Design the sequence.
């Protein structure tokens, strides 16, 4: 990888628990705080929701609303390990078996 290679990682954080209870703002604040501590900064879309639907292995369809947490960092092995660790923290904080997460290379202008 080149020294300037940057990756963007996006975590979809649910706005409601699996039981339908809305997560308090403090949970999102804690998510941004830990992300900032690990990577120096992040962005959280607080006003628009990502609307999704998906089916589990039994074919049951679920609908959800999420907020996008975005972090840009250098494409290093240590950062990839830290991103994986962060995903585990967020899964626990939002009580999720899985948390939809994507990571891709970006060119910062």
Sequence:
């Amino acid at each position: 990888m080149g020294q300037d290679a940057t990756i963007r990682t996006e975590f979809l954080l649910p706005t409601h628990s699996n039981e339908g209870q809305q997560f308090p703002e403090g949970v999102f604040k804690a998510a941004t705080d830990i992300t900032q501590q690990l990577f120096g900064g992040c962005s959280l879309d607080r006003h628009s929701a990502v609307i999704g639907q998906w089916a589990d292995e039994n074919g049951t369809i679920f609908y959800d609303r999420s907020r996008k947490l975005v972090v840009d960092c250098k494409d290093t092995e240590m950062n990839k390990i830290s991103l994986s660790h962060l995903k585990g923290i967020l899964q626990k904080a939002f009580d999720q078996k899985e948390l939809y997460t994507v990571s891709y290379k970006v060119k910062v202008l």
Summary: The two ends are 18 Å apart (CA to CA). The mean pLDDT is 92.
